[in-house]
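Incident review: delayed structure delivery

Summary: a single-chain prediction request sat in the queue longer than the usual turnaround. Root cause was a stuck worker, restarted by the on-call engineer. No data loss occurred. The affected request and its eventual output are reproduced below so the record is complete for anyone auditing the incident later.

Affected input:
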Amino acid sequence: MKQLLVGLGDRSYPIGIGAGTLSQVGEQLNLLKFAKKVALVTNPLVGNHYGQIVVDALRRSGREVSVIQVPDGEAFKNHETLQLIYDTLIERGFDRYCGLVALGGGVIGDLTGYAAATFLRGIPFVQVPTSLLAQVDSSVGGKTGINHPLGKNLIGAFYQPRYVHIDVSVLESLPEREFAAGMAEVVKYGVIEDADFFKWLEENVESLLQQDPDALIHAVMMSCQIKANVVENDEKEQGLRAILNYGHTFGHAVETLAGYGVIKHGEAVAIGMLIAAEIAREKQLCAEKDVDRLRNLLLRLQLPVMPPDFTASEYLAVMQRDKKVKEGRLRMALNRGIGSADLYMIDDLDLLLPRLLVSCTAAE
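Output delivered after worker restart:
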């Protein structure tokens, strides 16, 4: 396995990345002296595929394992599901010396992380992400939380895992749509931080879609390294880290308006990235050719680029509840060409967005 380190002082942790390594997770936790009594949080779909492999690996490493299954899907990333986790932990006698293992995609990781952050004021947890989106994004960096009916991820905490165990082989079981959704976050890293990586993605679309292990490991390694670099410099999103939300401001509005789970997170981010790029072009931060490169790459990766048919007023109302709103003003991550991004105050979005939505419709 290849390893990266997220360097956060006494909260630092390794990320292990490989292919066919799921059965090694218990050995890795022993190296970290992780808790011996653990609860594996998963959903029925992931649990049926990989639950027994991970449970066996944890037991071989000398651990007492409980399994907590929660419903599958973004619609269940809520307080009711969180309460189910709390109830089970209390009923099974978990204390501060126990730990949680998140086996699943971003919903499982966010829920488990928030449960770990808040149960008994904090117990350790590890991430074993099984979706591409979770492997390259949500499992790294310590953002945990749940959704609220009025907005995505409005309730949560920054709470770092002790370890992230990534096995790209599990991506073989993902539906094509789920895999494509994860690629949106991979593309994001190239746009905001690494022009060479973006070019590599353009040149390796077929290898990635065919899930060549070497290509996948490289894409995941690069994505995790870029995110780790940003998180190390701004753990709690006071400034720089907010560039990781590139495409998310409009994307979260898409998810909220469509209904959680109707449009997948990565699909919404793809749409949001193109809107952000169009705004950047309007503000002369990037050229038309940059927007075209982004659009073409997203389409080649089988991602949507057209916003759902909601009005500009509906989008704006949700975007004003975004966590990056500061003193009533919306901050957005915008790209400067390909390979760089920054935060900008957007005071004229009420004028820009209606025109961009009309333009998108015309392009379709």
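Verification: The first strand starts at residue 2 and ends at 6.
Action items: add queue-age alerting; document worker restart procedure.
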